[in-house]
Amino acid sequence: MTFHLDPDKLVELDRAVAFVTDGALVALGGGLSARLPMAMVRELVRQGRRNLHVVGSAHGIDVDLLVAAGSVAVCEESYVGFEQDFGLAPAYRRAAQTQTIEVRESCCGTILTQLRAAEFGVPFLPVRGVKGSDIRRLHPEYGEVTCPFTGETLVVVPPLRPDVALIHAPLGDRRGNLHLDQPYVLDERFAAASRNVVATVERIASFEEVAAAGVTIPGHLVTAVAEVPYGAHPSSCYPGYAYDRPHLAEYVRAATAGDADLASYLDRYVTGTPTEEAYRKVIGEERLATIASWSASTDAWKGLFR
Amino acid sequence: MSFSIDEWFVVALARTIRDREVVFHGFGSPCAQVAMHVARHTSARDMLLVEGATYAINPDPPFIPPTGNDLSLQRDASYRMRFEEFFDAALRGDVDRMFLSGGQIDAYGNTNVTAIGPPDRPKVKLGGGGGGCNLAATIGHLTLWTTRHRSGRALVEQCDFVTDMGHRTPAGTRAELGFAGGGPEWLVTELGVFDYDDDGRARLRQLFPDIGVDQVKASTGFELRVAADLRPVPMPSAAEIAALRAVDPLGVRRSEFAPEELRRTFTHGESAGCLC
Fold first, then answer.
1. Distance from CA of A169 to the nearest CA of B (A)
2. Are the C-beta atoms of residues B189 and B149 closer than 8 Å to each other?
3. Residues of B in contact with A244 (CB under 8 A)
4. Global pTM value
5. For residue A175, which phi and psi values (nearest 5 degrees)?
6. How many CB pairs under 8 A join A and B?
7. Which of B57, B63, B71, B167 should one mutate to test binding to chain A, selecting the residue with the greatest count of A CBs within 10 A?
8. Between the CA of residue A100 and those of B68, B113, B182, B249, what are the distances in Å?
């Protein structure tokens, strides 16, 4: 909401993530298996952040890992899971079933409307649906109005102003101008509605190069930016790399088993790797080169999904 | 020509699409996703296909990947909508059909993708509804599907939680709630195809040839209504099967079925006539 005019916002990852405080309302960018802000998620876990209230559309390992590490108090995503590929999100499911997190499941269209209310600076906006759905029972904050023009009754929702939006982009500059490839999912709306936007980029480039690629999120909406290659891994960040399906399978196995297996995953890939450079070493150059080779041929690309 | 139940099932889904419809599927829905591409290459060539998580218009993917948000699903797209562009179109009523499934589906076509058991202490927390609870209100028609009818747990008397509204909930009918969309039009399962009668309740219209009404009845948690003119599900054409195999070489559609279902194979009889 507030414009950020600092000419140089380039920081290291640990400083970037410091903008997220315990208990913050955090919007996660990207969606499902693409462009999830995974380096920031791992760094939040390393720094032991607690009681986060996460919000977003359809997400996967980002939310599940934060829940697995005990960083989440409230989850307001519209979906958390691994689609038909690996099914239900193991840590999210377990935490919901044992009431260790509060699930305020929402709906993509409702979240979009709430972000727009924040962007427009209005106290509420109406939605057409929601009425027949039990989702409404999870949200006592929703209200109802009678339309002054048509007389119909509509559900209304309050503005959603995240404290911080975490966004990963392929390219950015020191002022925080970000270039994204489609689908942007809710990232543009998050950027406009949130108090702070903290970004990681695959590569910091000159303003001219970012402008030539196209500025998707302008620097004046961005608070801090850090350069983290493979910062979305194991989700995809095209044109750089496809998602790392074997790694997702390894995570889902560990998170499903829980206890020692999950602790061992977290130790190996998150808390036991003090930096993202160390993380990339554990993943291995060969694996990273494989997921980056998607563009070599259709067969190479298809082969990543077998 | 031989084909398996997953292929016939996808073609049955594809045939619920009318030409020149604007059609959308949710993520985590390989069967619906493949069905839309099959329809666009055979029975509904002028449909507008909106990919489920990339919002790409009429793409020609080299393959369907096991995730809904992958660059392969944007290849050769004529346009890529923004998230809000798609939701605005759907919520103002410019999208004609959406495919929707659920862990539970009741007789009125209400679906549950949120939780099995009491919502405040669920037995199984499901993934969640994505955009469904708004989209189901305003999109013109819904094609519902499940590949788990035979489990007896999918078609239930009452959903433990209504994520997406069908024709009627305790809150009222669609008309009473001011919903512009027409609600569920078809329900395709691995046993047969249902439509909805004037009361908004599911009614069995077609059966796969290796399935009997008694089997459907035993697997259905709500009172089974059967159409007077119950027929076999129409066979897929060779063109539909070819289109399906071309778009889904990885066979992601098969991930929706129990392994024992995938053993069901069929062959076009000699009386099938032209299969084009």
1. 15
2. yes
3. none
4. 0.97
5. -80, -10
6. 200
7. B71
8. 29, 20, 39, 41
pLDDT tens across B16-69, in order? 999 999 999 988 899 999 999 999 999 999 999 999 999 999 999 999 999 999
Cβ pair A183:B179 closer than 8 A? no
Specify the pLDDT at position B272.
53
Across the interface, do A97 and B122 touch by the CB < 8 Å criterion?
yes
Provide the residue type at A27 as one letter: A
Contact list, B133 vs chain A (CB under 8 Å): 107, 109-110, 129-130, 133, 135
Model pLDDT, residue B273: 47
* Residue listed under structure tokens 């897929």: B236
With contact defined as beta carbons under 8 Å apart, do A58 and B130 qualify?
yes
Could you give the angle at which helices A276-283 and A285-292 cross, rounded to 10 degrees? 80
Residues of chain A with pLDDT under 50: none
Q: What percent of chain B has pLDDT over 90?
A: 93
**Structure confidence by residue, pLDDT tens digits, B209-259:** 999 999 999 999 999 999 999 999 999 999 999 999 999 999 999 999 999
Cα A293 from Cα A203, distance rounded (Å):
18
Looking up tokens 């189901």, which residue turns up?
B136
Alpha-carbon span B227 to B210, nearest angstrom: 18
**pLDDT at residue B270 tops 60:** no
Contact B130, B26 (CB under 8 A): yes
Tell me which chain B residues have a C-beta less than 8 angstroms from the C-beta of A33.
67, 69-70
Q: Of A112, A184, A306, which is closest to B87 when you measure between CB atoms?
A: A112
Q: Compare CB distances from B70 to A153, A154, A236 and report the shortest one's residue.
A: A236
Please list the residues that pair with B232 across neighbouring strands: B207
Quick: pLDDT tens for B64-113. 999 999 999 999 999 999 999 999 999 999 999 999 999 999 999 999 99
The minimum CA-CA distance between B186 and chain A, rounded to whole Å, is 20
List b or e across B156-181, with b for residues whose CB sees 16 or more CB atoms inside 10 angstroms: beebbbbbbbbbbbeeeebeebbbeb
Q: CA B95 to CA B180: how far, in whole Å?
A: 11
Using CA atoms, how far residue A202 sits from A36, A75, A173, A226, A229, in Å, is 12, 28, 11, 9, 4
Question: Quick check: B131 and A32 CB within 8 A?
Answer: no
Record: contact A33-B83, CB cut-off 8 A: no
Please tell me if residue B2 touches chain A, with a CB cutoff of 8 Å.
Answer: no
- Which residues in chain B are closer than 8 Å to A135, comparing Cβ atoms? 114, 129, 133, 163
**Nearest by CB to A31, which of B53, B84, B121?**
B53
Give me the residue from B27, B71, B87 closest to A238, CB to CB.
B71
Question: CB of B119 within 8 Å of any CB in chain A?
Answer: yes
Q: Is the pLDDT of residue B275 over 60?
A: no
